UniProtKB/TrEMBL annotation:
Gene3D superfamilies per UniProt: membrane protein fhac: a member of the omp85/tpsb transporter family (2.40.160.50)
UniProtKB keywords: Membrane
Species, as recorded: Daejeonella lutea
Sequence ranges assigned to domain Bacterial surface antigen (D15) in this UniProt record: 91-381
Protein name as annotated: Bacterial surface antigen (D15) domain-containing protein
Phylogenetic classification of the source organism: Bacteria, Pseudomonadati, Bacteroidota, Sphingobacteriia, Sphingobacteriales
Listed GO CC annotations: outer membrane
Amino acid sequence: MKNSYLLPGLIAVLFICNLAPASAQKKLIKKLFSNEADTTRSSSFLALPVLGYSQETGVEFGAVSLYSFYTDRKDTLTRASRLTGVATFTTKSQSNFQLKSDIWAPGNTYHYTSEFRYKNFPFNFYGVGNKTFKANEDRITQKLFRLNAGAEKKFGKITYTGLNVNYDRYRFTDKAEVGVFTTDPFLVDRDGGQVLFLGISQIFDNRNSNTYTTKGTYLKLNYSYAPKLFDDTDFDGGMFKADLRTFKSLSKKAVLGINGIFQTIGDGNTPFYLLPQLGNDEMLRGYYTGRFRDENLLALQAELRLRLNPKIGFVGFAGTGTVYGHNSFRVADLKPSVGAGFRYFFDVEKGLSIRMDYAYGEKRPGEERQKGFYLSLGESF
């Protein structure tokens, strides 16, 4: 979960520790700073303030939180479940709400996921394709309502089969009216729309942990179909996603992780907001999410994780990826991503961390090198 303004929140946590009663201080400090794992497998909660500023939003303020627990505290094989939430507001009447759940039933026999999101927030649009220009940057206001749910059942030792339903409703406004968003004649459904995907997943998962993996492999294949339900102009088509993650322990403190993803959607007439987007705080760090988007996405990254002690870790990562239209993939279009990061594990037993990453991407002619700083909760994959 990404938020670029968590750093003031870390300072606030230390300030709150000093204001809290002595007994509460002791519990909080032990949870945040002790190197010992909690053998009782108790629940944990972390909430951080959010504070930021930009010309388009004014002052942004709110909170981000993570609650982690076990559905069966006695069974040491049951994975950690998580509830994450974000609520932010701006002085220019913009808002962003998100609540996500990732629940593992006792014995990991079932896995449930859900997401509720409402977003009224601006973003930068650059056009469609693998070679968009910074000069075409167009500030767009987006209103998004999202409701997703999924359930997976375990069959055998490492196999899960699941169903998912995903509903999105989009509305867009371009106040400039002369930018690429308004003038691009090939942009599909620029005013927005709604879509309901119904899907099926097949998962192979033998990881030793779903929060901080040191060995094992995860592969998820998902196909979803969106029928015309609301309007004759709505998107009608399929979407396929593949997500591969594999981990190998190199020593007691070093882990190598490799992650590859592939996404494809549409038949040449796909709404721009459904196109896969390259770059975020999890895959191809260093690229602004949405700078490059097209009907297909292929990306690969490797991450070397060094956990020096139970609380502190460092990582180095490198990756490559691209977006492309149907039948137009070229190796020469692959974009680089390289960077490093710091980890602070606030819950040693569950392997939950505060993640700080800095990454570099490509340098296009006439533009500054693309780069980004990420401050998030949890590992990138």
